[in-house]
Write a structure and sequence with these properties.
The structure holds three protein chains of three kinds. Chain A is mainly α. Chain A contains eight helices and no strands. Chain C has one domain: MetI-like fold (Orthogonal Bundle), CATH 1.10.3720. Chain C is built from nine helices and no strands. In chain C, helix 3 crosses helix 5 and helix 7 runs antiparallel to helix 9. The longest helix of chain C is centred in the first third of the chain and has 35 residues. Chain C is elongated, with a radius of gyration of 21 Å. In chain C, 50% of the residues are buried. Classes of the chains: A mainly alpha, B alpha/beta, C mainly alpha. Chains A and C meet through helix 3, helix 6, helix 7 and helix 8 of A and helix 3, helix 4, helix 7, helix 8 and helix 9 of C.
Chain lengths: 213, 266, 220
């Protein structure tokens, strides 16, 4: 049994935390792209499209992220896609993030007064032009704070990837706890690192929100 | 309309409702209050007798609302003393504070009804919690008081379904339910549409007629003239002039009061 | 490769699934009652409490809101025994869910409490109500009413998050799902059924709470 110093524990956790950050970034960026596409689809499409996107959002917001991860992991394997925990986690978290982000942004777009759409339409702007030049800039201002706030939820969500065996911060913590027999210390360090990642983002989101008011 | 004011010593069987010489019920001595370095009340002395109706007038910022809010401890003053119905106002004693407040009713400019409680429950809440009044008795009395302010049929209504005038009359019934010895009215018609002012003032006037001690900050000069026994003109945190309404409105002594009264006529 | 789905082998395990769903709802109910109470106490402390308490509650809220639930759960279940506090999976789950919901409820309720108009409190004070009476009768009911939708959302989030409790072998719905797939090797179908059951529970709990709030929690 190797002797672990506090520094060993910390260093190993830090290495694993890189994967937490990487997974968070992939999910957040991927989720933003998919979420934006869904938003445009929802705004430009008919009521049926709107209902479908709504169901998509409801599905991801109404079920546990853990189950989504399991489904993706085993579902992809079943479809014959050669998958790894990393790929499955990336896909699942991207979809999860896209559902939340598209819903957040829809709220921001809905907060723009109808008159803005009507005014730009009466100036003969196309839907794309209205969205791109009139609505988006205004909605973006409203969206920044809740979007940054949601990033915290994504970072915390990546912890569940440990359950399908992806070695990020939480999984590494479990492994180190098993060899050191110091779960209290190890999980405290793990919590501390998540806190160090998330708290500044939370604070920043709050500052942004205050600035808006 | 039957009187349901329960204070037996307030029956007006002397020469008339406004001239009876009661014992002092409120005594304010050398009261000073400031916000930071800004002194709002700069030494107030005032005695109000039982059954007396006193109107406080003055420009905004003259300290009249602050004075009223000092009397039931909503504002903390730094110097001087205040005695209501024999009870000293002591901020650091929660029990003494509540004892004092039981004897002091207050009606606010903004009504401040509790939005989550029906009209009847608004009236019954404090007697139930503070006076531990028995439920049946409490409801009976609440219904009586609501009838007294002309809102008997609104017992089960929610406050947001009432007009401003009706809300203010409920607020009066709510304050009366605690059987206060003195009632403070803080510009109670200022937030009302003009056509609703009358119904509230009529209720206040009937209280005065029944011998309730009233201390009111008001902008309704004709009402003050008609109902008040004494009028106080406040200016820059001091009682600038005090006297019967005929004197104050008819023969103002100081240039400040003259200017204030003429500004109202514009 | 032809894709063949076999849901029948899942459906026949319905007693297991039902048991899991009951566990999930049960855990959520207890955590809601305890966490809600904790949230009310903490929200009061955060607004009206003495300074050190306010600071302490603030630290608690931030710590919980900025760390993953699974880490909180593992800390309680694997970490606390080091201090001699050995909890059963069910108790550890309830504790973790309570602490988690309590932190979010504190923030949600605080917003509602701070939104109480000053005049409401002054009116209650001048009617001689004590501080505790003002809070429970005048401040809290409208605050609860105001934040009820947010609170309900958070309770649903905590319920969905409780799926993780299966990882410490609490026998809730995700645990039951895992058990079934380990028996019949129909992982994909098992998780589809389990996930849909969660969706159904989420909708059910949400509507139930939306219905119950005005009737039992804060009056009309």
């Amino acid at each position: 049994m190797p002797d672990f110093t506090l520094w060993d524990i910390f260093r190993n956790l830090l290495m694993a935390a890189r994967w937490t950050v990487a997974l968070s970034l992939v999910a957040f960026i991927g989720g933003s792209v998919v979420g934006l596409a869904l938003l445009v689809l929802r705004l430009s499409g008919g009521p049926l499209v709107g209902r479908l996107v709504g169901a998509y959002v409801q599905l991801f917001q109404g079920t546990p992220l853990l189950m989504q991860l399991f489904l993706l992991y085993f579902g992809m394997a079943m479809l014959g896609v050669n998958t790894s925990a990393w790929i499955a986690a990336c896909v699942a978290l991207t979809l999860y993030a896209s559902a939340y982000l598209t819903e957040i942004w829809r709220g921001c777009v809905a907060a723009i007064p109808r008159g803005q759409w009507e005014a730009s339409a009466s100036l003969a702007l196309s839907f794309g032009q209205q969205f791109r030049h009139i609505i988006l800039p205004q909605a973006l201002r409203l969206a920044v704070a809740p979007t940054v706030g949601f990033l915290v939820q994504v970072v915390k969500g990546t912890a569940l990837a440990s359950v399908i065996g992806f070695v990020e911060l939480t999984k590494a913590g479990g492994m180190i706890a098993n060899v050191t027999y110091e779960p209290m210390l190890v999980y405290s360090c793990v919590a501390l690192m998540y806190f160090a990642l998330c708290f500044p983002i939370s604070l920043y989101a709050r500052v942004l929100e205050r600035k808006l008011q | 309309m039957n009187s349901v004011l329960s204070n037996p010593q307030q029956t007006s069987d002397s020469d008339g409702p406004h001239t009876q010489a009661g014992a002092p019920i409120l005594r304010i001595t050398a009261l000073r209050k400031s916000y930071g370095t800004h002194e709002v009340l700069r030494g107030i002395d005032l005695t109000v007798l039982r059954g007396e109706v006193v109107a406080i007038i003055g420009k905004s910022g003259s300290g009249k609302s602050t004075l009223l809010r000092c009397i039931n401890g909503l504002e903390v003053f730094q110097e001087g003393s205040l005695i209501v119905d024999g009870k000293h106002l002591l901020y650091d004693n929660a029990k003494a504070m509540r004892d004092l407040r039981q004897g002091v009713g207050m009606i606010f400019q903004g009504f401040n009804l509790f939005p989550h409680l029906s009209v009847g429950r608004n009236v019954m809440l404090a007697p139930q919690l503070v006076k531990k009044r028995q439920a049946g008795l409490n409801e009976e009395r609440a219904r009586q008081l609501l009838a007294r302010v002309g809102l008997a049929e609104k017992f089960d209504a929610m406050p947001d379904k009432l007009s401003g005038g009706q809300q203010q009359r409920v607020a009066i019934a709510r304050a009366l339910a605690m059987d206060p010895a003195i009632m403070l009215c803080d510009e109670i018609t200022s937030a009302l549409d003009p056509e609703l002012v009358g119904e509230v003032l009529r209720v206040v006037e009937s209280l005065a007629d029944e011998g309730m001690t009233l201390l009111m900050v008001t902008h309704e000069m004709s009402f003050a003239r008609k109902v008040a026994d004494r009028v106080i003109f406040m200016h820059q945190g001091l009682v600038h002039e005090i006297g019967p309404p005929a004197e104050i409105f008819g023969h103002p002594q100081t240039p400040e009061l003259r200017q204030f009264l003429s500004s109202l006529r514009d | 490769m032809p894709l063949q789905l076999d849901f029948w082998s899942i459906v026949v395990q319905w007693p297991l699934l039902l048991r899991g769903a009951v566990w999930t709802v049960g855990l959520t109910t207890i955590a809601t009652l305890l966490g809600g109470t904790l949230g009310i106490l903490c929200a009061w402390s955060r607004v009206h409490g003495p300074r050190p308490l306010r600071w302490l509650v603030g630290a608690y809220v931030e710590l919980i809101r900025n760390t993953p639930f699974i880490v909180q759960l593992f800390f309680i279940f694997f970490g606390l025994p080091e201090l001699g506090i050995r909890l059963s999976p069910a108790v550890a789950s309830i504790l973790a869910m309570t602490i988690n919901l309590g932190a979010y409820a504190t923030e949600i309720l605080r917003a509602g409490i701070e939104a109480t108009p000053r005049g409401q409190i002054e009116a209650a004070e001048s009617l001689a109500l004590s501080k505790a009476q003002v809070f429970t009768h005048v401040v809290l009911p409208p605050a609860l009413k105001k934040v009820w939708p947010a609170l309900v959302s958070q309770i649903v989030i905590v319920m969905l998050g409780s799926a993780v409790c299966g990882q410490i072998s609490t026998e809730e719905l995700s645990y039951a799902t895992n058990l079934i797939q380990s028996r019949n090797f129909r992982a994909f179908e098992s998780y589809i059924v389990g996930t849909l059951l969660y969706l159904g529970l989420a909708i059910l709990v949400r509507s139930l709470l939306a219905w119950a709030g005005p009737r039992f929690v804060f009056g009309r």
